[in-house]
Design brief:
By secondary structure, the chain is of the alpha+beta class. It has one domain: Glutaredoxin. A two-stranded parallel ribbon has the order 1-2. It has a two-stranded antiparallel ribbon with strand order 3-4. Strands 5-6 form a two-stranded antiparallel ribbon. Strand 5 and strand 6 form a beta hairpin. The radius of gyration is 17 Å and the shape is elongated.
Length: 116
Amino acid sequence: MLAITPDRPEKLRETFEEHGYAYRLLSDDEMLAARAYGIAFRVDDASLARYRGFGVDLEERSGRDHHLLPVPSVFLVDRQGVIRFVYSNPDYKVRVDPRALLEAARAHAPPPAPAP
C-alpha cells in the first residue's frame, strides 16, 4: 500500500515522524499524478483563506503556487498496472467503505501459488 500527497518531501518526513505511518508515502508536489488520474482540483481564493485561518498553507506545504489538491481517492492497481477499483469522493469526510475495498482486493488478487 502507498499513499500520494501534494506535500513536498520535507513535509513528508515531518508527517512520518509525527504519526509513524506503516506504509509508503510519496510526494506529488507538482500534482502530476493527481492530474494524470483526473482527481486534481483548484482551490478557490476563499477556501485558500479559510485553510490559512486553520493554519494550513498549501503553498508552504507543497512548495508550489498551483493551489491544487487531489480529490480523496483510492485506486486498486494490479501487478500489470491495470486499475481494478476506484473510489473518489470530493467530500473528504466520506471515505471508502473498508469492506468494499477488501472485497475488490480479494476479487482481483492473483491465485495462490501451488503448494510444493
